[in-house]
Amino acid sequence: MTGFVELRDVRLTYGGKADGTLALDGLSMSVKKGEFAAVVGPSGCGKSTLMKLATGLINPQSGTVEVANKEVSGPVSIAGMAFQNPSMLPWRTTLENVMLPLEIVQPHRSRLKSEKKAYIEKAESLLELVGLKGFGDKFPWQLSGGMQQRANLCRALVHDPALLMLDEPFGALDAFTREELWQVMRDLHGEKQFTVVLVTHDLREAVYLADRVFVMSARPGKMINERHVEFARPRPIDLTYEAAFNDIVHELRGQIADARAAA
Ligand SMILES: Nc1ncnc2c1ncn2[C@@H]1O[C@H](COP(=O)(O)OP(=O)(O)OP(=O)(O)O)[C@@H](O)[C@H]1O
């Protein structure tokens, strides 16, 4: 069975052939529908490049990229995305920022005018789900960094994407806020069952959230390991202080240290 996100033997070079940067070479990865996948690896190994390929922002020189059994050749509309910098539009309220994808992605775009009330209710219920009830009419600059990132997750999810691509979304937050947002993410995934690919440098984050952690080599990046994480869901945050959890974090840390040393 093919995965929901399927990369096969992908090679990607930035710039010209002679003086370009080979970012990925021989990278294969298969993420099942509904699965929460995390991608970790040495700095600069090509994690963000992988995200750009899977969302169709760039195309590989060789190999194939498929999402939902379709070859990706342009931006993937069934994907929601969130990055480290929430980049909310400062002249729009939080609610208006959250609703932005509805103005772009079909079929919502055509329906937005006639079904505006229902869409507003949907955006507000997402804000409530992430703990931002009542903040919809505030501007982004009136929110803390953690609140902006919560709103950013709502914006990534408002058009009910089947696939959520997260590139270091919690990287800039303090440790407490980060753990809070891990739990928000856990609950959103538990409720909505979308497929997730999360790129992170934080191995605790990867092990806490993911069903499977993919480990990349140093650049040019390819997958060197897949670690299943079989803790029952929903996972309490205290799990992250248990020995069995830390054993997996240590194991992954060792693999990344080896990958760095081999570079
Ligand atoms: N637009 C670009 N043009 C040229 N080279 C690029 C471009 N984007 C990335 N690269 C190079 O490709 C390689 C992989 O970059 P990428 O951002 O995918 O790595 P990463 O694993 O996400 O990095 P980090 O861990 O630091 O976030 C790096 O050597 C980077 O310098």
TrEMBL record:
Listed CDD domains: ABC_NrtD_SsuB_transporters (cd03293)
ABC transporter domain location: 5-243
Transport in keyword set: yes
MF term (GO), any: ATP hydrolysis activity
Domain of life: Bacteria
UniProt keyword list: ATP-binding, Nucleotide-binding, Transport
Family: Belongs to the ABC transporter superfamily.
Name assigned to this protein: ABC transporter ATP-binding protein
